């Protein structure tokens, strides 16, 4: 049976490996900043981004293939010895043609938790409509919008971005968590930057002087790319 | 440090017993229908409602005290041999002066999960402003709004009711889940009945011909009672 659902918090993500996701399209949101950086990298010509769980795994892959770029964060900061942090502004022209291995706190965990879905997408405000259009072309597939959150808590901006997808596709009957996300978008749809600034992650980035990253991630539909996690472990533009 | 937080889903509720809730006021919402029935019972003169986990516990208490009324549900239906189900319409004049033992699926679990909070309230749309006013009189206490949900999933109507409290108290700085709830209220504040009808629990009750119960629970601020879980295990009007 088809459903249109959402996962609002990390403790619910922990339960996803046990959930039947046959035929489902899982869409993962980690708006500040992992999936925004992934989508930005693809728009700047990166050939693929591979999310991994650990710093060691990333370093091992680079040992095997020195052409890889390493990116990611721990507690919001760049990892020692890595080429890139988690700011989408770093994923600029310099990534053109490159493959990137990335490890972030919540985004990677969420992507792994839905590994058994039929299709896995990484989405952000930047490519919301492109992602929604992909879903609208597959109306028979169940949809699960996965809000990656921060550590063990829900993140407002992830639920807001999921809500934008639900808003665009609102003709479909939705489960309660998708309706929650849709309402979060509806209540704040006129000003995505204000929403991101009010979120805990946005406030923390602004305190660190990273308002430009928040502004970047708050842009809606500036990138017309669908980002899919492929069987080889790399997220690529469809 | 004071915080204003919310818990959106049952898997997050499972983690509450490990969370530091010193000084906190925990407010539990199970709008369709446990906390709405509790608040209705108190407004009709019930002297107290004791939530327990199991049917056996409820029956044992009645054996000790035959004057108790037994109420509650399993899978939304009245329990065999119980005096009352979980419809707020049953908690009418007949409960005046009586003590009630109740066992419901999610509401009871949520109340138990916050047993270590300083103050525990049961809230619904019916007594939202009364509850908010209690919180506003205790500005130094951390607040955690606990949305009981349904089985393992978030319930839209619980998040909406929590959001009404957040909306009333919106001068306070809030954590992301409270902002999520506030947005859910803000996006739907003009029509609580439409919101409850669109929620999964509302749809299920309507399919069973129980629209009047949904209508009852959708009433906002018709009851001026604050319902507190006391150390003796009974919820009473403050």
Question: Overview of this structure, please?
Answer:
- The first copy, chain A, is an alpha/beta fold.
- Chain A is 37% helix and 18% strand.
- Chain A has ten helices and ten strands.
- Chain A has helices spanning 10-13, 34-43, 55-64, 107-113, 128-136, 156-168, 176-187, 192-198, 200-207, 211-217; strands spanning 4-7, 25-29, 48-51, 69-74, 77-78, 99-103, 119-123, 143-147, 227-229, 235-237.
- In chain A, strands 1-8-2-7-9-10 form a six-stranded mixed sheet, with helices on both faces. The first copy, chain A, has a four-stranded mixed sheet with strand order 3-6-4-5, with helices on both faces.
- In chain A, a hairpin with a 5-residue loop joins strand 9 (227-229) and strand 10 (235-237).
- The longest helix of chain A has 13 residues, at 156-168.
- Chain A is globular, with a radius of gyration of 16 Å.
- The two termini of chain A are 26 Å apart.
- Chain A binds chain B through residues 8-9, 11-12, 14-15, 152-156, 159, 175-177, 179-180, 182-184, 186-188, 198-200, and chain B through 8-9, 11-12, 14-15, 150, 152-156, 159, 175-177, 179-180, 182-184, 186-188, 198-200.
Quick check: average pLDDT of chain A?
95
What assembly state would you assign to the polypeptide chains in this entry?
homodimer
**Biggest interface and which pair forms it?**
A-B, 26 and 27 residues
- Strands of the widest sheet of chain A, in order across it, are 1-8-2-7-9-10
Radius of gyration of chain A: 16 Å
Total helical segments of chain A:
10
Number of strands of chain A: 10
Order of helices and strands of chain A: EHEHEHEEEHEHEHHHHHEE
Helix content of chain A: 25-40%
Strand content of chain A: 15-25%
- Mind summarizing the main beta sheet of chain A? 6 strands, mixed
